[in-house]
Amino acid sequence: MPSPAKINLSLWIKGKRPDGYHEIVTVMHTINLFDVLSFHPSDRFELEIVGNDTLPLNKGNLIVKAANIFKEATGIKPKVGIRLKKRIPVGAGLGGGSSNAASTLKGLNEIYGNPLSEKELYQLAAQIGSDVPFFIKGGLALAYGRGEKIRNYNPVNFKLLLVYPNFQCSTAEVYQNLPPIKRDISPEDAEKFVISPLVSGKIEEAINNMVNDLELSRAPCIEGVKKVKKVLENIGLKPLMSGSGSSVFAILTGSISDLTPLKNSGWWYKFLSAV
Ligand SMILES: C[C@](O)(CO)[C@H](O)COP(=O)(O)OP(=O)(O)OC[C@H]1O[C@@H](n2ccc(N)nc2=O)[C@H](O)[C@@H]1O
Ligand SMILES: Nc1ncnc2c1ncn2[C@@H]1O[C@H](COP(=O)(O)OP(=O)(O)OP(=O)(O)O)[C@@H](O)[C@H]1O
């Protein structure tokens, strides 16, 4: 089962909630950068990871967390082996772990004859993490609350350049080091600023309205993100950090003058598309 990455086309912080999370409004789109989960029968639940030797294999892995939540909700002990082929950079703001968790919930639900309704899938996803409900459907969506409330739209086509600067950002650390921010923005505003121009092909207007308030964080990793943004700005692009970082993307509306500075950076980069 393909497990896509996502980028945040915008992320606005409305304020801090009593539960310690931040109230946000964000626009996300899945992209054609995938992990792959394969499920096979086994006498007990087991996880194998290929392509990454630092991720945990125990309940610290969001795939195991998703399988445990599936078991608690359905009473079914999954007798399934999952093989994860990891390609999405970790700690990059691309939602890799969240995407894997959503794919695990959907995969187990399918294998055991759909004991969970779509509504229940969303409820379980929200228990795993704020980004997980988005990945139940993917495509183009608006997320709000702490990110678990979702409005889906028809996916749009655009190409992008994605840069991963070979260091991670911790989501918690980025949020915890935010200065006080109180954006007065609603999901309807996000539709007006970003979604409507995107779906009506006014890509430049959408790009000019895009912002990521998490770039204001004082977390140390953001300094590195700013260096990546500078290099992309110097080659004529309008870059934005994805999610809590560390990756930076730029939507492509034409050709790029000169890639030399990026080639000399040693950073990982790919030309990708929205899916
Ligand atoms: C940055 C984004 O990826 C943008 O899509 C999401 O907002 C974060 O989603 P996520 O990685 O699934 O985050 P979670 O695993 O739910 O939370 C990790 C930590 O990030 C912080 N967090 C997360 C979401 C949110 N709306 N406010 C927060 O303050 C909290 O400290 C939380 O303990
Ligand atoms: N299956 C998994 N894939 C990737 N990370 C995982 C997974 N399970 C647990 N994690 C942990 O989650 C953290 C980061 O996950 P992830 O790669 O989703 O970060 P991210 O891309 O910044 O996601 P987000 O945009 O949701 O913040 C790391 O500390 C990693 O160890």
Automatic annotation (TrEMBL):
Gene3D superfamilies for the chain: 3.30.230.10, GHMP kinase, C-terminal domain
Q: Which Pfam families match?
A: GHMP_kinases_C, GHMP_kinases_N
In this chain the GHMP kinase C-terminal domain maps to 204-252
UniProt-listed InterPro entries: GHMP_kinase_C_dom, GHMP_kinase_C_sf, GHMP_kinase_N_dom, IspE, Ribosomal_Su5_D2-typ_SF, Ribsml_uS5_D2-typ_fold_subgr
Q: In which pathway does it act?
A: Isoprenoid biosynthesis; isopentenyl diphosphate biosynthesis via DXP pathway; isopentenyl diphosphate from 1-deoxy-D-xylulose 5-phosphate: step 3/6
Name it.
4-diphosphocytidyl-2-C-methyl-D-erythritol kinase
Q: Which family does it belong to?
A: Belongs to the GHMP kinase family. IspE subfamily.
Record-annotated membrane-spanning stretches: none
